[in-house]
Amino acid sequence: MSHSHLLRSSFIPTAPTSLHRRSAAVSHAPTRTQQIQSKIREIFMPALSSTMTEGKIVSWVKSEGEKLSKGESVVVVESDKADMDVESFYDGYLAAIIVDEGLSAAVGSTIALLAESEEEIALALSQKSSSSASSPVSVPAPSDSDASKVFDEMPSSEEVASTQVLNASVSSAGLGSAAHPASEGGKRVVASPYAKKLAKYLGVDLRGVVGSGPNGRVVAKDVEAAVKVSGGGGGAGATVVASEVAAKSSGVKLGSVVPFTTMQSAVSRNMVESLAVPTFRVGYTITTDALDALYKKIKSKGVTMTALLAKAAALALVKHPVVNSSCRDGKSFTYNSHINIAVAVAIDGGLITPVLQDADKSDIYTLSRKWKELVDKARAKQLQPNEYNTGTFTLSNLGMFGVDRFDAILPPGTGAIMAVGASQPSIVGTKDGRIGMKTQMQVNVTADHRVIYGADLAAFLQTLAKIIEDPKDLTL
Amino acid sequence: MQSAISISLSSPSPIARFDVINTSNACLPTPRSLRFCGLRGEAFQSTSSFKTSSFRSARLNSRSSLNKVFAALNSNGATSSSSSSGFDYDLVIIGAGVGGHGAALHAVEKGLKTAIIEGDVVGGTCVNRGCVPSKALLAVSGRMRELQNEQHMKSFGLQVAAAGYDRQGVADHANNLAAKIRGNLTNSLKAIGVDILTGVGTILGPQKLKYGKGGSGDTIITAKDIIIATGSVPFVPKGIEVDGKSVITSDHALKLEFIPEWIAIVGSGYIGLEFSDVYTALGSEVTFIEALDQLMPGFDPEIGKLAQRVLINPRKIDYHTGVFASKITPAKDGKPVQIELIDAKTKEPKDTLEVDAALIATGRAPFTEGLGLENINVQTQRGFVPVDERMRVIDANGKLVPNLYCIGDANGKMMLAHAASAQGISVIEQVSGKDHVLNHLSIPAACFTHPEISFVGLTEPQAREKGEKEGFEISIAKTSFKANTKALAENEGEGLAKLIYRPDNGEILGVHIFGMHAADLIHEASNAIAMGTRLQDIKFAVHAHPTLSEILDELFKSAKVKVSTSSAVAQPVPV
């Protein structure tokens, strides 16, 4: 009997194997009966083969709010054997997606909610928001108590839903409504296929996007630009890091387990690998009055502090090639022929190190331009491998957060990394016995002691300090 | 039409073919297997299993008798019946496309004095404006796609800097390929002594026709049998203005004169799909306009769905289904191409699109005008020449027109190059005194996207309908490319092979493949259908490991047939 309920309220895949239902799904059939009355149905992870215990959502064919009719594909599920389309057994609206693309769920667990009418989408959404707190990312089959709790809360949650709807409408209105030249007074949006896809993916309302394509058409880069503006990224160089990190801290689901993104996995791998390298650190305090003055002077020409620091480090490395060397096999080391300064940038919840190639040879303006380009590419995830993995020396700057000193981990395959703290006014004693005020910053270099020794770093830092304290060479 | 057969033959060996076929025909009790492409280099291969040692020696001797045979051929069938029966030719074929070519080759094999009339260029649509140049473009797009897919490259451990292309270079590749194949085709006809008559061919009456530039300079000839093989041209629905620049058909698109930022493709069949593959790989964005409710209407629904997920959704493509493009105006005076869409059912205006270019891929229309069909009382149906199952032309009174046949796109039975060729060979079998009916359900079709789509026989809904009507059960078996070692080694695990069969007798009703090299994989299934091989027998055939062919092996093995193996395959062979 419970079987019949299941089949009626659930989704079965196109494969005839769907009758192999797992017991997990059967166990909370009673809840489902009630939900049929409420016209909000749950979509379950189907069993696509007799051996399948959990499935991964490859992609949602439909997105939230979309109408679907009986027999239409809703979701693509990857089982242990193949990818399969799962079809809807009812007409209705895909109200809420509970398990997102790329995540796995046990057979029989709820992966989405289906509302019978458009009005009920809000109701379903509230159901989702209350249930999502209790559903971890790798969704196990919900226990009976969980499911019934969801149901209990439903009447009162209508309030929540309406505020959500309100929020949504406010935010879309806030996007503004630039009239589209090719859109008959803003009634119609002309956007290229990829721009539309991207907008859907990034949640951008195309009505608010100004098109730069032929005849004012919205193209992909306009959508990307719109995201940047609304994201508040803006500034160049180091400031990007600050705003991106700040933006990231909100909107995190507490208590959730989040699988690594590709970038995070790569970072994780590199970090563990770094433990195999014997490192040591040498610090130095550098007076930056002259550098600050120079920066102020050429800032208007698009020069960034990151570029200045990279250039200074590169010039110092010219004189100390051993600090620019790298040891990969533990038996020999390479004096790198290029001085490529990698600069760590926090981006999109991860970390990437765009590389300023031949920083010693490029002038500061070219370097600044190049840096801006790299940051833009990094944010668009368009960096080519040679633009982020060819660094020979790394720079990490947390100064803009007010951090006065920190310690960096040496990226594998390079010889040294320099951690740069904030430059701040300090009271210093001078040689003639007086007290003066100077702006100073602390730098701290981590290096591979197999090839770089204390004296090497000391000499390098001394050169670097000289360059920064008398920065005329930087603009040559 | 876009589904190509590969026609590349640098050194035709028509003499050998001539010899062997004669001998093998004499001794074969069973109908000979069909050749889908009349241009096969190795004619021996297909018949060698039937040969006895004496035939083997005949084959070895063929080289020494070369001169003699050539002499006979140069006089083009002088020894055959035509001279005695008073006709100029035994056979005249109108149209030197793939169909006409296949028929001509087979006719010469059969000793018929043959001529082929061509008003344009040898090779027809397939070679010049269809399958062949499009394969060149698709070869480029496949590589582009691979190089651009950083994830894919990374999974191999490869690093590739941004891949770029030179439009003219790509276009030249397509053009050169067409020229080369055209040359091969022409040479293969000349080498066996087929007369290539230049001009438009018109039928004047029974067994009589003329060719030439039109007017009084035309030459009148007689032929015992005539084959119409005039092919087709791109079909352009009314309301659409093709200017060849911003609103184009496949004829123009294959020249790749420009790569628009945004192109609308009207029609999501083979042609549209293949071009979407080319254009998106080269950086264009694509909008499909499909009159039916589903994209890729010709395919098995399940395959279509999977194909949509792989070939459409992740790419820079969107689509409008259930709509007609009622009016398309080319770009002019700085204005983009305007496309008016109306609902396919209600005919109400639905939307207007403004794009950089539009490709009309709504199918193909038969090219049968000026053929002189009125002289023999034949009325075309929507332009197609009506024929029976033996490709014999039917006149306005429903009677067969003697000695007149029509093959290929012009009859509309199955608009595929290799189908035309197979129909041509079937006709030659008949005119040389052997009854032959081509099984169209054994003709494979392929769409050369990345990955490819191929199929033969019935789709699942068609099979179910047939099963219901005729009262037999249908079963489905599927295998995934994910389970195939070779596919995984290539990092191409996305794909599905589907078998539709009768569990009661093991008959293969249809096979559909979506995945890497699907177009090459289908032939094991199409040959099995053509030969009538049953699943219970074919499942014992051995496949090399690891190869993609194991996907079909797997598929055949997973079928559950209720009858046991017939004994034919179990003959012991001493090793």
TrEMBL record, chain A:
EC number(s) reported in the record: 2.3.1.-
Location of region: Disordered: 131-154
Domain Peripheral subunit-binding (PSBD): 190-227
Residues passing through the membrane, by range: none
PROSITE patterns: BIOTINYL_LIPOYL (PS50968), LIPOYL (PS00189), PSBD (PS51826)
Compositionally biased tracts (Low complexity): 131-145
Obligatory cofactor(s): (R)-lipoate
Protein name: Dihydrolipoamide acetyltransferase component of pyruvate dehydrogenase complex
Organism annotation: Penstemon smallii
Species lineage: Eukaryota, Viridiplantae, Streptophyta, Embryophyta, Tracheophyta
Automatic annotation (TrEMBL), chain B:
Residue numbers binding FAD: 135, 201, 230-232, 409, 415-418
UniProt GO molecular function: dihydrolipoyl dehydrogenase (NADH) activity
Coiled-coil region: none
Disulfide bonds, paired cysteine numbers: 126-131
Residues where NAD(+) binds: 267-274, 290, 363
Domain FAD/NAD(P)-binding: from-to ranges: 89-424
Catalytic activity line of the entry: N(6)-[(R)-dihydrolipoyl]-L-lysyl-[protein] + NAD(+) = N(6)-[(R)-lipoyl]-L-lysyl-[protein] + NADH + H(+)
UniProt entry keywords in alphabetical sequence: Chloroplast, Disulfide bond, FAD, Flavoprotein, NAD, Nucleotide-binding, Oxidoreductase, Plastid, Redox-active center, Transit peptide
Required co-factors: FAD
GO cellular component, one term: chloroplast stroma
Main subcellular location: plastid
Active site (UniProt): 545 (proton acceptor)
Cofactor-binding details, from the entry: Binds 1 FAD per subunit.
InterPro entries: Class-I_Pyr_Nuc-Dis_Oxidored (IPR050151), FAD/NAD-bd_sf (IPR036188), FAD/NAD-binding_dom (IPR023753), FAD/NAD-linked_Rdtase_dimer_sf (IPR016156), Pyr_nuc-diS_OxRdtase (IPR001100), Pyr_nucl-diS_OxRdtase_dimer (IPR004099), Pyr_OxRdtase_I_AS (IPR012999)
Ranges for domain Pyridine nucleotide-disulphide oxidoreductase dimerisation: 443-554
Subcellular location: Plastid, Chloroplast stroma
EC number: 1.8.1.4
GO biological process: response to arsenic-containing substance
Family: Belongs to the class-I pyridine nucleotide-disulfide oxidoreductase family.
Role summary: Lipoamide dehydrogenase is a component of the plastidial pyruvate dehydrogenase complex (PDC).
Quaternary data: Homodimer. Part of the plastidial pyruvate dehydrogenase complex (PDC) containing multiple copies of three enzymatic components: pyruvate dehydrogenase (E1), dihydrolipoamide acetyltransferase (E2) and lipoamide dehydrogenase (E3).
Protein name according to UniProt: dihydrolipoyl dehydrogenase
Organism of origin: Penstemon smallii
